Amino acid sequence: MRAARRLPEQSKGSRLRPDAFTMDKLDHATRKSRSTCARERLRLIDQLQKVPTGIRGLDELTGGGLPAGRPTLVCGGPGCGKTLLAITFLVHGAVDHGQPGLLVSFDERIADLTVNVASLGFDLADLQRRKLLATDYVRIDRQEMHETGEYDLEALFIRLGHAVQTVGARRVVLDTIDTLFAGIPNEAIVRSELRRLFDWLKDRQLSTVITAERGEGSLTRHGIEEYVSDCVILLDHRIVDDLSTRRLRVVKYRGTSHGTNEYPFTIDDQGITVLPITSTRLAHAATDETVSSGVSELDAMLGRGGHFRGSSIMLSGGPGTGKTTIGASFADRTCSRGERCLYFAFEESPSQLVRNMRSAGVDLRPWIDQGLLLVQSSRPSLGGLEMHLALMLKAVQDFSPSAVVVDPLSALVASGMHYQTASMAVRLADYLKSNMVTALYISLQDQEGPSGLDISSIMDTWIVVRNERTDRELSRRLHIVKSRGMDHSSAVRRMEITGSGVQLTDLALGATQAEQSGR
Amino acid sequence: MTATGHWDLRLYVAGHTEKSVRAINNLKRICKEHLEGRYTIEVIDLIEKPQLAAGDQIVALPTLVRRLPEPIKKILGDLSDQERVLVGLDVRPQA
Predict the structure, then answer these.
(1) Could you tell me the pTM of the whole model?
(2) Mean pLDDT to the nearest integer, A398-402
(3) Is A156 within 8 Å of chain B by CB?
(4) Residue among A7, A141, A148 whose CB faces B76 most closely
(5) Which range marks the domain in which residue A448 is found?
């Protein structure tokens, strides 16, 4: 076994490194054009270079992608998306960064893989023709094998080396490495050769994704994680409350601060999208322009005549506090300016919403007829949370509204777990904000104080409505908890739903009126 | 037993390492002793022809591929365990 180390390996570094260096520089240059100078300076200080995966969310939470010139282990159970993640990494490198790739498949024939990823718009055959991708299907059949003495896996290295050379590969995928254990009779040889393989990849500065099967009680079935010290990503696909849920976790990333939480991710025709809980991009353009909240007195309370355009507003309160009426008023005012509004009604059908709001003095029908208002009603429990987010984002993309109402955000809790819902809300808010869409999120909340969804921190404005019971009557109260960048009123107002919409009055005044009317 | 017919053998090695040389010598000796006149040996050095490794799905080295008699068998190692080589070649039935 040891003899393997003496095989012709010596001349590798000196010849390949300068090349690798230039490629990294090139890659750097591509990124430079897209990022700000400050960020670039940070990247230069950061000695660890990264290669973007092209997977939305993953590059954000790893601060730029996977470690350049080093192996990354992606582990998970069957059907969790390992292969897809790996191939996305390759295709993105080839198409968007001019980095040719090598795909070594130990499980599936290249033809089958090609068909599988075609639905995502990846054309592996075309990349092969354009010399941007080399492939090798390594089939190991243990039935054929017969051991008769010392051997090593040098032929695998020769195959890799040859394939890397044919296209000048900078990125490599080995999918899935466990097959070696199943195919080669001597596990000790596989282990020592794996160690050599990872060194081999590093020496050649190949940015590599190695996939491995999830093990019982350990990250991988064969303990591959002990060979990879740079970056380990765990994928998980489970059913929670009858809902299919995919999650991603960066278990380890040497030399980089990374999110350690589990992040939900989706696989659809757009590929993989990871949904980070905290928005890492805070580059939203801020504007001084305000738009009406739909309630004139509330506009006055906000101090600037309304909400900032593109801001996120949370409106929370118990049942029957008039939240939907405020939401409908906001939609009504948006449409009256000739702008489009998308209303996600999770608990009412469009016709129910229209009927109920008409009784509160808000007529939405004309706006629907004019195509300015789109009411989308669907139960979030159908199809799972991820699907739901995807569909919501798609609706926003298709309709391109200037305002969105989510009524209620808390309905999503029923469709998934709190954490996921919060994470999804952040993702949605981030998306809307970066597209300058003013968004009103209605949250059903019995108590004052933090809701089950701890997302108030990402909201620019937080308005609370509640029912107040006195000896005489049940009346509504509204106050503004916060509104960033606005000198808002801290008063608690009395809220009434009249035949002509929502009206707010001073409490003292309201009391006087009540007393007067009582006399 | 099956000790009739023709043996079509292909030995994959990488360079002139100790292991390669040992495998070549062992193979020649075993064939001479047990298959005289009924075998052909082709030695392929993958250092010179790396593109040939994929065709026979070679991963380990040295690998002796028994192309005939069928079924195809891959005999891994430097062939120093003569008894196992003979079993692998189907010269001697499996114990």
Answers:
(1) 0.67
(2) 90
(3) yes
(4) A148
(5) 290-518
